[in-house]
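Cross-check.
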Amino acid sequence: MEKVKYLILGAGPAGLTFANMLKQRGEESFLVLERETEAGGLCRSVMVDGSPFDIGGGHFLDVRRPKVNEFLFRFMPKEEWKLFERDSRIVIGTQEIGHPLEANIWQLELESQVRVLSSIAKAGCNSGVPMPEKFRDWIIWKLGDRIAEMYMLPYNRKMFADELDELGTYWLEKLPNVSFEDTLRSCLTHKAYGQQPGHASFYYPEKYGYGELWLRMADAVATKVLYDVKATGLDCDRRQISTEDGRRFEAETIITTIPWNCFENLSGMPEDIQASIRQLKTSAIETRYVPEQLDTHAQWLYIPDEEKPYHRILVRHNFCQESRGYWLETRKERVPLFKGKAEYCYMNEYAYPLNTIGKPEIMKRLLIFCADKGIYGLGRWGEHCHYNSDLVVELAMNLAQRLNG
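Predicted model, tokenized:
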């Protein structure tokens, strides 16, 4: 039995931030367990065709959290990053339309603009209809039936498939309202109006993939990280972790950043909470490299065309300097639609936590119960929320300050 004050499961952005916060605050009794042979989690990078390839897809450092960036620049100085203005587009037919679509419909042909404007004017959010509870209904309520049909419904079917009807709407409140007035104004002036989405400006390393940042953070606590160690059991009463290779660890506080359904054995937890964990849903995403140049200035391309397997393209040569090619993101179930063999591909079995209708209640009860035992869920998987890496770092910094105050 190995005993420490803090035991951290997962050496991704959440676990590494928490570990480095402990070190910077003078704490030495902690240990990080990582199932892979390298740190970084979904933000890992590998070299493919002479340039970095981010295996988890499009991960960038947003500019909106200066305290987070200040913390991360301690490991990779600001001089090693390049600042970009986001250029993301939606491919409608043969056209690339600016994202978000509702702010850029002026780029469509005139008749399409008229139809979209008419549908937005009739949308439930603009006509006083109460917000629906189901995701599919919410799309039409929020954006009107025209944008729903040409983009949002097909795109999300490619992302979530059968789970589309099971998704709630609670996670969509952060999205700006689609104002008919702003949309009309954009059509008249040929200029985007309204609130811009996240990552309007972002940093990306000049000479490396995004994974380089997390490797440096892991190096800063190198003696405290154990690789190739898969946690399989959690004893809530004893605050003990058992691993696939038969080792056991005990801690005063456990921080878990891994998916809850990775635990094959749970003890000291009510059976109904264990049953609810089995109801949590995730999606698996393949990232695939294509060694060609695309004639576009965009960094992201969203692909609603259901005839194509992939739903998103990351144009590597438009943000990763001196590189070529691009990579595709495809939900696991759609990968068989590809023809031919990929030059390089990687399957992320845990890519996105799905925001199913009952998820908030499941996670609230689970996290409250575990926190009372000295066990804390943290980050995208510990909290089962689709958090970007910058938010994950902020949450980890706050939790470290609270627990190691």
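Residues 101-196 form one domain. Residues 287 and 346 are 5 Å apart (CA to CA). Passed to J.P. for a second look.
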